[in-house]
Design a protein that fits this description.
The protein is mainly alpha-helical and 113 residues long. It has 2 helices and no strands. The longest helix is centred in the middle third of the chain and has 76 residues.
């Protein structure tokens, strides 16, 4: 879109040396559509606004993608942390069972003596 606007400015600047003013009611030496100065300015402003909106849209899409990646990484970290927490609980339970079993076995040996 920027290329189109730049081309329009380039063409306008090149042809401005060949262009002349046509008064209302005069015959034009070419075919095409004539615009009033106000209409041309309005069209250029609309084109500039369109370019700004497209730039904002691109920035919005980049920001959205950044936040998606950030959320994905946070979910992965949370999952890893939850798995580690489950492993800690299971490890503590198994260790408690082993310690209790060892204590019971030692209690039986002490009672035999």
């Amino acid at each position: 879109m920027k290329k189109i606007v730049l081309m329009m400015f380039l063409i306008t600047s090149i042809t401005s040396s060949f262009a002349g003013t046509i008064q209302k009611g005069e015959a034009a030496p070419f075919t095409g559509i004539l615009l009033t100065k106000e209409r041309a300015e309005k069209a250029m402003k609309a084109e500039k606004a369109n370019i700004v909106l497209k730039d904002l849209q691109v920035a919005q899409e980049e920001l959205t993608e950044y936040h998606r990646d950030s959320a994905r990484k946070a979910r992965n970290e949370l999952t890893k942390t939850q798995v580690r927490g489950y492993m800690n609980v299971i490890g503590a339970f198994v260790l408690g069972v082993l310690v209790t079993g060892f204590a019971a076995k030692m209690n039986n040996k002490i009672q035999e003596i």
